[in-house]
Write a structure and sequence with these properties.
Blueprint: E1 7-10, E2 14-15, E3 21-22, E4 24-27, E5 40-47, E6 54-60, E7 67-69, E8 77-80, E9 90-92, E10 98-106, E11 109-118, E12 122-127, E13 139-146, E14 153-158, E15 161-167, E16 173-178, E17 187-190
Parallel strand pairs: 2-11, 8-9
Antiparallel strand pairs: 1-4, 3-8, 4-7, 5-6, 5-10, 6-7, 10-11, 12-13, 13-16, 14-15, 14-17
Length: about 190
Amino acid sequence: TTGNYARIAMTDTELKGINDTTEIVITDKDADTQSGQQDVIKVTVKSSSDTNGFDILLRESSNQSGVFTSTAYSKWLGISLSASDAANYKIKALNGDTIWITYKDSQPLSYWTDTLTINLAKIAIKSPPNNVDTSVTPITITGTVTGVDIGDSIVVYRNGVAQNTGVVSNGLIFSISVTLSGIGDSISIDV
């Protein structure tokens, strides 16, 4: 039959860290057009920081199911704080951004949109102090984090390269060791 309305869903409606991802699922029986094989549809992903966005292909989860997923290609939608990366399904999005996933249903002709919000965790570093001796390595960075769950991973980067990971424990406290290479190192932490 034709004329069934499509449904769009995501496994998560909020991303709290740059490593968080969500699966996109479209249910559209009318898009199952080829008997005996898995069909492919596309959705458009845009964000407040990337209003041009890009298209993502979703493949039918099984023959004639009418259920299309991003994970059929082993892809989960994620975010990037710098530039979008369509090949890896990462859309540029900053804290507070909204991500829109839009699907064009051809029977009946209509557009379906779902949204996702970016609520990145906030990190407060307690140590090391500003006058840390970079000749003594490794150093340990400790602090607290909000907007995450106990057990979430934290990654520390030195000059843009991941160095070590830690895990948020009770009290939302973390402690991560990192080796510095010298004066002028740039340290960042992502959840």
